Amino acid sequence: ILLANGVYAAAYPLHDGDYEGENVEFNDRKLLYEEWACYGVFYKYQPIDLVRKYFGEKIGLYFAWLGVYTQMLIPASIVGIIVFLYGCATVDENIPSMEMCDQRQNITMCPLCDKTCSYWKMSSACATARASHLFDNPATVFFSVFMALWGKQGLSGKNIGDDPRFMFRLLGSSLHRERHTVKLTWRDRFPAYLTNLVSIIFMIAVTFAIVLGVIIYRISMAAALAMNSSPSVRSNIRVTVTATAVIINLVVIILLDEVYGCIARWLTKIEVPKTEKSFEERLIFKAFLLKFVNSYTPIFYVAFFKGRFVGRPGDYVYIFRSFRMEECAPGGCLMELCIQLSIIMLGKQLIQNNLFEIGIPKMKKLIRYLKLKRQSPPDHEECVKRKQRYEVDYNLEPFAGLTPEYMEMIIQFGFVTLFVASFPLAPLFALLNNIIEIRLDAKKFVTELRRPVAVRAKDIGIWYNILRGIGKLAVIINAFVISFTSDFIPRLVYLYMYSKNGTMHGFVNHTLSSFNVSDFQNGTAPNDPLDLGYEVQICRYKDYREPPWSENKYDISKDFWAVLAARLAFVIVFQNLVMFMSDFVDWVIPDIPKDISQQIHKEKVLMVELFMREEQDKQQLLETWMEKERQKDEPPCNHHNPKACPDSLSSPAPSHTYHGGVL
């Protein structure tokens, strides 16, 4: 209340002392700085016990989870590197890419846009086809299964707080401070709930609108570059458009992340949650929902929508009746998905997670220092030396909670698991980032932030449920990426159903349909039909449709339905395979090792015995006390009060008879 009313400017625990200097006394802060917050100790284990002691259980659990996550990335990175090297080793043996690069095939492709684009040779996409094989090869399927199991079992299968090896579990539940004392009814909260719903829908609509704008940019830029007179520019249209569009997406994502974070906090405040825990959980849910949509919408578009609703030559689909929907390259959209994912993931890690975390605190600290120096007398340095600990800590950045730290790691976890089939090197780059991230966060907590109030916690909270949700979603998304985005299923169908000699020869020609250029709609044919040096009568496009000389020309062919059935069957088989293997791994490798499980059982038995012994001791003490109290209340036993005496004392002694006599 005093803070809210402005009586106090801030309230915070003090740091133990300085962390560097010649005459600095040894303290926990200095020890944390030397053994934890320096980049030179990246190879060492984190001193989690000391972190917990200095910052509290909640922050200790965050760094424990981050350490486990980083360790789990090591096997995923190794397998990803092996998959990538396998693609590099077999790229020269890949028959489909060899056919696409073979100029003797003389395959003429239909224009990529109306009017300004002309016909082009398939061999011009040779580099893209060869690069696609690095990520779209048989090993990718194995890697997708591995990462699906990794995502379900590695981090999201068990709560870190429930693992006895971390020794963070507390007796009793967490303590939650009351945030508000005003009790509001559902009717009072309804306007806030309605505002939240409308605002979230509006923010999601803004994200979709921006993605649509980038799509229009890609279509327009492709048409503009096609008009360029330079052959090198026209041959690299796809790469240029994709790279520039992804950079635009990256900038927009970084900016909207900051905006959405502020909006999520404002929407949570107007709900007036009752407790600190309720406030934090609602804030996390809103922020994650908005940032999830913001970060992954461009990737979802490339993976599942681009090239799906383009129509065909002579009957294309248009946006606003002006912009023709863009198509995938002859080798598929997987390579473009790889470019999209890699640039957004690496860009967010480099700019948002590292430069912002390093640069912004340094800049704020410099501004505070210059402001203090300008307001201080000439002997500023002497004043600084005479300052008390609370004055020095006041100049540090206030602790804003763990939500931003968790959020950036959860978004990264989504990049690593959701679309890993298109970018096997994602775990490697995440590992390299996290090695720096651990020490960066440690240095920020030790040197740049005020010491936070220690908070008790028994687990990582709602983040555990988010991790489990992403792990389950990753299985479905990777199944659809392999089935519908890559050419893995069409290659299998061709190999076992249509190949005449049991090889992949002829696969590229099988995936291309024919179009008679005389069937172009008015105003859509190329302005320069002789750009290749000869007149084109039949051009090819990627689709499964009947040829123009067929009775049902341009209708979907039976090959399309065969491939579609195989794709859907693969999705079902993939999901069930992952579920079966997940259950098998749970059965073979328990979450808790057998020796630890036995130790826990023994501790529980000892606890029960101790509890029963204490209860028996309490019962005996209670009975003794009650007996003493009863004796105090009873009158004394003497000849004046024979009724108070026991029967053995007040009654005459019994006689004993032996052989008829009396003794």
From TrEMBL:
Parts of the chain that traverse the membrane: 62-88, 193-219, 239-263, 283-304, 409-432
Mode of membrane association: Multi-pass membrane protein
A Pfam family annotated for this UniProt entry: Anoctamin
GO MF annotation: an example: protein dimerization activity
GO cellular component: plasma membrane
Domain (Anoctamin transmembrane): residue spans on this chain: 51-150, 175-603
Regions of compositional bias (Basic and acidic residues) in chain numbering: 628-637
Compartmental location: Cell membrane; Membrane
Chaperone among keywords: no
InterPro entries on file: Anoct_dimer, Anoctamin, Anoctamin_TM
PANTHER family linked: ANOCTAMIN, ANOCTAMIN-1
Family: Belongs to the anoctamin family.
Protein name: Anoctamin
